[in-house]
Amino acid sequence: xxDATASRNVYLRTILRLxxxxxxxxNIDIAKELGYSRPSVTNALKKLSGDGxxxxxxxxxxxxxxxxxxxxxxxxxxxxxxxxxxxxIGVPEFESKENAFRIEHLVTNELIRAIENALS
Length: 120
What we know:
Blueprint: H1 4-19, H2 27-34, H3 38-50, E1 54-57, E2 61-64, H4 66-88, H5 93-103, H6 109-119
Helix pairs in contact: 1-2, 1-4, 2-3, 4-5, 4-6
């Protein structure tokens, strides 16, 4: 993924989702989930850690910092709204997800809320 924000959001959302079903998240778990190589995941996690979004610990695995969790939850919300909207207008689920993950960081929360209100 070329866009740093999009890539960051993919990793943070993945860690958030994995944390709901695993007590300890390892880089191999993220690599398997995303279909990325372990070295790529390791490099990304080092950057995310350096930027203050995740904590890397031998004993506790990979965890989100409060700001990392906040970004992941907001990104997840934004993606879910876009996916739901795209599917309602007839876009297949896979294509809806793929496009929502690509653009969620490009649009404003106001637009997401407007879409959410239109879906209600």
